[in-house]
Amino acid sequence: xxxxxxxxxxxxxxxxxxxxxxxxxxxxxxxxxxxxxxxxxxxxxxxxxxxxxxxxxxxxxxxxxxxxxxxxxxxxxxxxxxxxxxxxxxxxxxxxxxxxxxxxxxxxxxxxxxxxxxxxxxxxxxxxxxxxxxxxxxxxxxxxxxxxxxxxxxxxxxxxxxxxxxxxxxxxxxxxxxxxxxxxxxxxxxxxxxxxxxxxxxxxxxxxxxxxxxxxxxxxxxxxxxxxxxxxxxxxxxxxxxxxxxxxxxxxxxxxxxxxxxxxxxxxxxxxxxxxxxxxxxxxxxxx
Length: 288
Fold this sequence. Notes:
By secondary structure, the chain is α+β, with helices and mostly antiparallel strands. It folds into 2 domains: 3-94, Phosphorylase Kinase, domain 1 (2-Layer Sandwich); 101-283, Transferase(Phosphotransferase), domain 1 (Orthogonal Bundle). The chain has 8 helices and 9 strands. It has helices at residues 3-18, 101-105, 113-128, 185-200, 214-223, 237-244, 256-264, 269-283, and strands at residues 21-28, 33-39, 45-52, 74-83, 86-94, 131-132, 141-145, 150-154, 159-160. The strands form 3 sheets. A 5-stranded antiparallel beta sheet has the order 1-2-3-5-4. A two-stranded antiparallel sheet has the order 6-9. It has a two-stranded antiparallel ribbon with strand order 7-8. Helix 4 (185-200) packs across helix 6 and helix 6 (237-244) crosses helix 8. It is globular, with a radius of gyration of 21 Å. The model is unreliable at 1-5 and 161-165 (pLDDT under 50).
């Protein structure tokens, strides 16, 4: 097939897709585009995510078969379309009116166990499918309105277990990131970073928004202990953060059910002794 013929076919494909939608808003970042659209057939609002077909970018693993309350719904996948003279992979997704959790955090939203358990249940579902997120961070956790409460769903998931961990956001990268050996404990570490950030307002090992260089952030992750702010976080969240941010992946908490159980725990004498043990370990900057 000639280059020009393929170009025309891909352009026609996008035109056929988009003619069924009214574009309400276009959001662009450094790598992708997000279109807020309204379907002309059922009047429902959707998101069309366009990701450049380029090996330098992470391609999400959205799949119409991945169906779970805490994972964003994908209704259609197009492997290649032409939009504004560039080739993209396109996904038709559900639209989040609330946006990501950073948008909620700036409002009067109060952190609850529902929020934390929603994230863990979504990660657990991906793990059961032989996937893990691979780039878990606040901008990839979206909020949706349900009948009774706000529900949180994972977006932009998509690294298979045998993948290479080259696309993770540096601020949330685990110590083993430099080895490029990806596994589900990546997501556990990222979850700990998110908890720390939400409770303290800062990332545990630095941020580019605070003028830290990537090399400095990765060096801190490898060698620096948790900042002292972790000691002010209430239990059981402090304990969960310490267990998630254990630098040695072999000793890091790894079972999602264990984290769910910790979130439901009622304080008792044994729990307090266990919390104290890890508190002292962390205070002495010892790895768990």
